[in-house]
Design goal:
The protein is mainly beta. The protein has helices at 335-350, 356-363, 430-441, 468-476, and strands at 19-21, 24-26, 72-76, 79-81, 87-94, 99-107, 113-114, 124-128, 134-135, 140-147, 154-162, 172-181, 183-186, 193-197, 200-203, 211-215, 221-230, 233-239, 251-255, 261-263, 272-274, 277-287, 291-298, 306-308, 311-321, 366-370, 376-380, 384-388, 396-397, 409-410, 416-417, 428-429, 457-458, 462-463. β15 (200-203) and β16 (211-215) form a beta hairpin.
Length: 484
């Protein structure tokens, strides 16, 4: 048989019934191709047979030339798919996590089916290619699709295309979809959560998913949330709790056995509203490939009851100070300082030609001041942009006139740099960091280039803008599109 041996399984407890000829009923085993001068051997095996076997007559029918044609059949697992109308959702993956789906192609026709390499939609890839591009009658092959996305969170969809020479299903197309979620939540009681000592379960509608663990005043106990096998990068860690006057004002969390993070559980968290709850930021941590994040809540000197509810982590796109942490310790800025620069940053991005959907996304982002680790200036999640309170010690340049960049000059490399005597000299430019993190929210990755807005690091006294050349040519001609 061309293409190799084929195995067919029959249940001989039921009579053959595909057709009757000369008073005998026959069961069709399939259609197969034999090369000129070849042989056709049929073997009945007892492998796995649960009862007696009957070996009777075999019959071969030669097909006429006009009846020979290939026919493609595609399955996802055991599900038969229809070209042009079937859709398949691979599910939801956390940032950097992969989803896989194996497809089987069978030639159920009577002639050779020729295949070309499968084409995956954007966001998907062919992780295992076709086993063969030629399927003889009755033969099958498989391929595997992978979804692994590390850009913007959300729904990804498109058409999977299988080029072939079937008469009416060429190409064979399937609508694929999958969702990338940049956040991961472990609730009390979920896998990954554990508690010891006097923590006990409490159910009420105000708790995340209707339940929490609680520890009475003076009791001993530890609650732990473990996130493992993470993709390398920075993650923002959040906690939620239902505030109450009987709870501790000094509940102590820690991340990866670090120093205590003291939280007042009498006050509701308010850094983020997502997944049906309000969340407070505990911190931002860096994780190596395959690493983990372990969050603990302990009774240490708590002056009231403490509640252990859900912990949320979210992949954060960081911008780092190029020279590391500053030896000085500049004062922190305020939320009003952030708000004063936010509109300017949004207008810069609008001037690049964003779609209405992209503009709405940026307008919905929540800006939060946080004490970020090490030399981290800012970080972006899908819904929140984090800004370090004092720019890793350098201090922030908060520009009162962000559209003229008069505090900066173009150097020999074409970069905007603040010289000695400028109000921006020696500080980190808040506008640049906000523009960079907005870029992450839009789905742009960090770049290796040191002079790009989406570069991984930023020097003090430096400003970067989207479409910088277009901006300055507009200013030179007396027509600044950013001020329209």
């Amino acid at each position: 048989i061309q293409g190799g041996d084929i195995t067919v399984t029959l249940d001989q407890r039921f009579a053959a019934n595909d057709f009757t000829d000369a008073g005998v009923s026959w069961e069709t085993l399939g259609t197969f191709q034999v090369a000129a001068g070849g042989t056709f051997t049929i073997t009945l095996l007892d492998d796995g047979a649960t009862s007696k076997l009957a070996a009777d007559a075999m019959r071969l029918d030669i097909l006429s030339i006009g009846s020979i044609a290939p026919e493609i059949e595609v399955q996802a697992g055991a599900v038969n798919l229809t070209s042009g109308s079937s859709s398949l959702d691979l599910g939801t993956a956390f940032y950097g996590e992969s989803l896989f789906q194996t497809f089987t192609i069978t030639n159920t026709g009577t002639d050779t089916l020729n295949l070309s390499p499968v084409i995956a939609p954007a966001g998907f890839s062919i992780s295992v290619p076709l086993g063969t591009n030629t399927l003889y009658a009755g033969q099958s092959t498989t391929f595997e699709v992978e979804f692994n996305n590390t850009t913007a969170a959300g729904l990804y969809s498109g058409t999977l295309t299988i080029p072939n020479d079937d008469a009416d299903e060429a190409p064979f197309t399937i609508d694929l979809s999958a969702t990338m979620n940049a956040s991961l939540i472990i609730d009390d009681g979920d896998a990954g959560f554990s508690s010891s000592g006097g923590f006990y379960a409490v159910n009420w509608v105000t708790y995340f998913e209707g339940d929490t663990r609680q520890l009475l005043t003076g009791a001993n106990g530890t609650a732990t949330w473990d996130f493992s096998s993470l993709t390398a990068g920075s993650y923002t860690v959040y906690a939620t709790w239902a505030a109450h006057g009987s709870l501790a004002t000094n509940a102590e969390y820690s991340i990866n056995a670090g120093g205590p993070i003291v939280v007042n559980q009498r006050v509701a968290p308010n850094d983020l509203n997502s997944d049906g709850a309000n969340w407070g930021i505990l911190g931002v941590v860096n994780v190596l490939a395959g690493g983990s994040i372990s969050v603990e809540l302990t009774d240490n000197a708590a002056n009231g009851k403490i509640r252990a509810d859900a912990i949320r982590i979210e992949r954060t796109g960081p911008l780092m100070a190029a020279a590391g942490v500053s030896p000085s310790n500049a004062p922190a800025i305020t939320q009003s300082d952030l708000d004063s620069v936010r509109d300017a940053a949004l207008n810069y991005w609008k001037a690049t030609g964003l779609s209405e959907t992209q503009i709405s996304l940026l307008e919905s982002v929540n800006f939060v001041l946080a004490d970020l680790p090490d030399a981290m200036l800012g970080g972006a999640t899908t819904t929140t942009i984090l800004i370090d309170i004092n720019a890793a010690g350098y201090g922030w340049f908060v520009d009162d006139t962000p559209f003229d960049s008069s505090e900066f000059s173009l150097d020999a490399d074409g970069d905007l740099v603040a010289g000695i005597g400028s109000a921006a000299f020696g500080q980190m430019d808040l506008l640049t960091v906000m523009l960079h993190e907005m870029g992450h929210t839009l789905g742009y990755d960090d770049l290796d280039s040191d002079d790009s807005l989406m570069g991984e690091t930023l020097d003090a006294s430096e400003r970067r803008l989207p479409e910088i050349d277009d901006f300055f040519s507009g200013v030179a001609e007396g027509d600044n599109p950013l001020l329209d």
